[in-house]
Design goal:
26% strand; amino-acid biosynthesis; chorismate mutase activity; 42% helix; six-stranded mixed beta sheet; binds ligand ISJ; D-Maltodextrin-Binding Protein, domain 2; 12 helices; alpha/beta; Chorismate Mutase Domain, subunit A
């Protein structure tokens, strides 16, 4: 058996050689970047990388080594690209995203749209964000709200994006991809659901419950203890309250906020019936204008991954390498492409930060359809 110290000394010598060669290679990559600055050629050349990986892995003496060589060179070439992005950005070759920097957002005299009807949780979020005295109105669907800000009928829309118990509101993620609207703010509000019935109804009268599917989901355990009740999905919790009032039937109840009980003259039959006491929903404030301020500190983006193994790992490396703190990642199926996904990432930063620009430039080259959804 060889002595450990002796073996480690040998490894140390080889590692120094690897480091020297790595640095030599990176200097050459800087030369390649210069060539690309002058010619406008793209940094990422997949064909060249694939052919290099094929040649180099073929040199591996065992399957284990072939695998390791592939992983090692994927990393080395990824670093070489990142160095080139840095040099291109430093050379002023950064195509600014189609966002306008504004001093501040104009909330005075703003017209704000929300989905649902009077008393909807979206309206509570709206009041929390913009204050009580606002010019606001409601529309029937989230798509209608997106259309309203796109057409300029409204300046801002308030849309739920994520609930702490039920997860994301996937329809609004998809609408953010479809429309070129822009997130300019967010508001989290506590969601306490109540069971509401007619003023003369008792809990024992109830046979039918109406609410939004998300609210029904968030009260899953409570509803499980009343399995005999028929559950009905409606577009909005406040619409459910309105329906119970209008139908005037003692056996019908709605799951909605207790604020809607006041608005529609209903009785609170049970309070705080959601599974999670801390139940909260995050709403996004969306504008038809693609704007951000220098104070904005969070960025939401989405992109499609290249459909191959390890691609997500490489996409996320742009955040890690640039020292960017990621807060959230989601995936949604890409319409018309089974088993392919679009990733949604929220991270800290401002579009003016060099680190952010570097990461975005890398992602733009190495993913499909990178879209900045907002910086707020
Ligand atoms: C260095 C280059 O840029 C990128 C990095 C590569 C590498 O490090 O080997 C290969 C291809 C490109 O994606 C190049 O184009 O040759």
């Amino acid at each position: 058996m060889k002595d450990l110290k002796e073996l480690r000394d040998q490894i140390d010598v080889i590692d120094r050689q690897i480091v020297d060669l790595y640095q030599e290679r990176m200097e050459i990559a800087a030369g390649v970047a210069e060539y690309k600055i002058n010619t406008g050629k793209k940094v990422f050349d997949k064909e060249r990388e694939d052919s290099k990986l094929a040649t180099l892995t073929a040199l591996g003496k065992t399957d284990f080594n072939k695998h390791g060589i592939r992983e090692l060179f994927e990393q080395i070439m990824s670093m070489s690209r990142k160095r080139q992005y840095q040099l291109l950005t430093a050379h002023g070759m950064y195509e600014k995203p189609d966002f306008t920097e504004v001093e501040s957002l104009d909330y005075h005299n703003a017209r704000i749209v929300f989905q649902g009807t009077e008393g909807a949780y979206s309206q509570l979020a709206l009041r929390e964000y913009f204050g009580e005295q606002t010019d606001s109105y409601h529309v029937e669907t989230w798509r209608d709200a997106m259309e309203a800000i796109k057409n300029g009928e409204a300046d801002y829309a308030v849309l739920p994006i994520e609930n702490s118990s039920a997860g994301i509101v996937s329809e609004n993620y998809d609408l953010m991809v479809e429309y070129d609207n822009c997130i300019v703010g967010e508001q989290i509000i506590q969601i306490n659901h109540a069971l509401l019935g007619l003023p003369d109804a008792e809990l024992s009268d109830i046979t039918d419950v109406y609410s939004h599917p998300q609210a029904l989901m968030q009260c899953g355990r409570y509803l499980e203890s009343h399995r005999e009740w028929e559950k009905h999905s409606l577009k909005n919790t406040a619409m459910a309250a309105k329906k119970v009032k209008e139908d005037g039937k003692k056996h019908k109840a709605a799951i909605a906020s207790s604020l809607t009980a006041d608005i529609y003259g209903l009785k609170v039959l049970d309070e705080c019936i959601q599974d999670n006491r801390m139940n909260a929903t995050r709403f996004i404030i969306v504008s038809g204008k693609r704007v951000f301020t220098s104070k904005a500190e969070k960025i939401s983006i989405c992109f499609e991954g290249m459909h191959e193994s390890g691609s997500l790992y490489h996409m996320l490396s742009h955040f890690i390498y640039n020292g960017i703190n990621m807060n959230h990642i989601e995936s949604r199926p890409v319409q018309g492409k089974n088993w392919e996904y679009r990733f949604f990432v929220d991270f800290e930063g401002n579009l003016n930060d060099a680190a952010v620009q570097n990461a975005l430039r890398g992602l733009a080259e190495e993913t499909l359809g990178l879209k900045i959804l907002g910086n707020y």
